[in-house]
Amino acid sequence: MKKSSVRKYSDPIPVDLLIDIFSRVSGKSIARFRCVSKFCAWILRLPDFTELFLTKSSTRPRLFFTVKANGKSFFYSSTQPQNPDKNSSLVATRYASFPEYFSSNMYYTHTVCGLVLRNGWTIRQPRVICNPATGGFLTLPKVLIKTNNLVEVEAKSSPTKISRILLGYDPISRQFKVLCMTSSSDERPNTHQVLTLETGKRSWRRIEHKFHFIKNFRMRGEVCLNGVLYFGAQFGQSSVIVSFDVRSEKFGFINTNKDLEVEDSSFGDSLTLFNYKGKLGIYDWDIDRDRELVLWVLEDAGNHKWSKHVYVLPDVINEMMMFVGMTSTGEIVWSSYDDDDDLSILFYVFFYNLERKTLTRVSIQGIEEFKHHDITIDTFLHYVENMKFM
Q: N or C end of the chain: which has fewer CB within 10 A?
């Protein structure tokens, strides 16, 4: 009798099962899997995979770092600890390098759902959206405005210039949009334009707005929460929070002067917008104010209702530490670094538990290659790896 034939190939693994398996691994592993075969690369570009990966990545947020050194910018990330142990350490891993024009002169704006908006200090530098997890990026098209002669020209110099560019994400439509605002020193009105990050030709669309507001230099930061962008602005003589609904592309305003009941003197460099456990928060701290930290939390945007929370910080918190934000469990986070040490870069992230009044210092390792270099490090919370290709 002839021996029974042996099957050379096993049944193929269902695509749905492969998508589920790939969604459980790290972004760095995904980058390696893309090189395994064309079939794997095809799976890792499927919308079903990228959406599932983003959903699971959102449950395991990371710390994100930008390092500016030697005239270039570099991206790193590490796990974001929950209830970190004292004197613990984390290792930051570096993402793929980007083109040379991602120089240190391009300042980091913010991350939204895994994408990073990069903006330049000068009008000649490009404005770029990049994805550190995939290495993809795109340069935003030029912003055009109409002159008094109804001729469209690039908004890059006086009397009209770009005053602010922000990135937002709507989780319902799953769309990223860029909001661009221009300001003019003559009688021409300020303009607001939107660009949707989608396949095909990308172009700016002008949107209607009923109010004219300008940038408020007394409030820093911008926050995107549940599809709404928040940022500080000046409306007449008042300081306000502007809300921009990413899906409907409608503006709203939240009063701060009346409901916060703070004096103008406290509207200084210490005011920063941040994510307060899913709500909009304002971080207000002045080291000369008896170490008193004030957190304002937006409870009702429609009625301009804020709650006030006052804390006294320990002496170890000083003006050299940079405010980072708040974790989902309610810990205030700062960072600090010192590159003067002969052996290594002393880079720490501090977690302060407001209820237990305990401070935990976590050492960040992995950027020793920049020892003895003039560096700048920025730290960000709640970074999620997104496999969306640009």
A: N
